[in-house]
């Protein structure tokens, strides 16, 4: 029992963070300590519990059975303590901490810049980490590697909290000299067009593909790219058509022609989080900032149809 007297709550928080991140370096960065402090903390914990807690396997560290047991018990205690601490008023100007947000290009262009500006202005000591969600958002939340997930991911389960931020619609983006640019876009014309698709290295497809398959339409892109970076440049001067969320077209469609997607396919952009951060004053405040920015974003209509000038 005496061996445990030297332990404090921050040591257990370090242990849980290393367990969740699988890295001493990343855990130290996340909780704001240097790696030598994290290593020293682990030495005290190992001596106290008479267990290595983590063993190295190749380039990874793996928790021991004893470590699994400790973390399962301590994690609930930390959540309870965080909930109790959040009962007091949250003061953004004085607050410190780090929040990890997972999202993709759509959300990073549409929401994150304004949200970050507000956070920096109102809570200058808060640190924000942005992670790529791709197809891993649900796993990231379950493994506690992120605090907030943004996107059209449609996660179902009792362990998740959800708040809708806004709903978007698909827009077709094309070059001004595309033969479809000066006429209404029918479903048949859309299917016969040449398409460019963002696939996150082949691991993801946009929602409208599954809607088309329900109608017996299997669309095969002529060009697949890993992200929305340089999408506009890919379209300019080509016969390719990109189908993307309308509000993303607001920032990518400069100088291009936009057409409504010929089917009604709503894109619900939601915010997800778990019990671990639900009662945290810091995380509640960040979620509210994201919700407020989204509410303002909803007031701006998606890019409309632009018809090229005839000469």
TrEMBL record:
It comes from the Bacteria. InterPro entries: LysR-type_TF, LysR_HTH_N, LysR_subst-bd, WH-like_DNA-bd_sf, WH_DNA-bd_sf, YidZ_PBP2. GO terms for molecular function: DNA binding; DNA-binding transcription factor activity. Residues 7-64 form the HTH lysR-type domain. CDD domains: PBP2_Nitroaromatics_like. SUPFAM superfamilies: Periplasmic binding protein-like II (SSF53850), Winged helix' DNA-binding domain (SSF46785). Pfam families: HTH_1, LysR_substrate. Gene3D superfamilies: Periplasmic binding protein-like II, Winged helix-like DNA-binding domain superfamily/Winged helix DNA-binding domain. Keywords: DNA-binding, Transcription, Transcription regulation. The keyword Transcription regulation applies. Belongs to the LysR transcriptional regulatory family. This is DNA-binding transcriptional regulator, LysR family. It comes from Marinobacterium lutimaris.
């Amino acid at each position: 029992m005496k061996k445990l007297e030297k332990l404090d709550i921050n040591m257990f928080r370090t242990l849980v963070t290393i367990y969740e991140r699988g890295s001493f370096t990343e855990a130290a960065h996340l909780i704001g300590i240097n790696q030598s402090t994290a290593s020293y903390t682990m030495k005290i914990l190992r001596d106290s519990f008479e267990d290595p807690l983590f063993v190295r396997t190749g380039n990874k560290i793996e928790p021991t059975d004893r470590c699994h047991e400790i973390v399962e018990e301590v994690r609930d205690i930390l959540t309870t303590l965080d909930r109790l601490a959040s009962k007091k008023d949250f003061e953004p100007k004085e607050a410190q901490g780090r929040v990890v947000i997972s999202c993709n290009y759509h959300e990073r262009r549409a929401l994150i810049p304004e949200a970050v500006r507000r956070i920096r202005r109102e809570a200058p000591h808060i640190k924000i980490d942005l992670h790529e969600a791709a197809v891993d958002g649900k796993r990231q939340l379950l493994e506690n590697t992120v605090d907030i997930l943004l996107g059209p991911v449609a996660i179902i389960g009792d362990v998740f909290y959800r708040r809708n931020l806004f709903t978007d619609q698909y827009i077709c983006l094309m070059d001004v000299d595309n033969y479809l640019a000066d006429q209404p876009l029918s479903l048949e014309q859309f299917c016969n067009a040449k398409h460019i698709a963002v696939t996150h290295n082949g691991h993801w497809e946009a929602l409208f593909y599954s809607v088309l398959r329900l109608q017996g339409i299997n669309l095969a892109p002529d060009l697949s790219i890993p992200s929305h970076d340089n999408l506009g440049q890919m379209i300019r001067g080509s016969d390719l058509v990109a189908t993307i969320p309308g509000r993303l077209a607001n920032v990518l469609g400069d100088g291009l022609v936009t057409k409504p997607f010929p089917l009604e396919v709503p894109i619900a952009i939601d915010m997800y989080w778990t019990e671990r951060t639900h009662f945290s004053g810091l995380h509640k405040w960040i979620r509210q900032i994201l919700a407020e920015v989204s509410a303002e974003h909803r007031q701006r209509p998606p890019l409309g149809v632009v018809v090229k000038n005839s000469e």
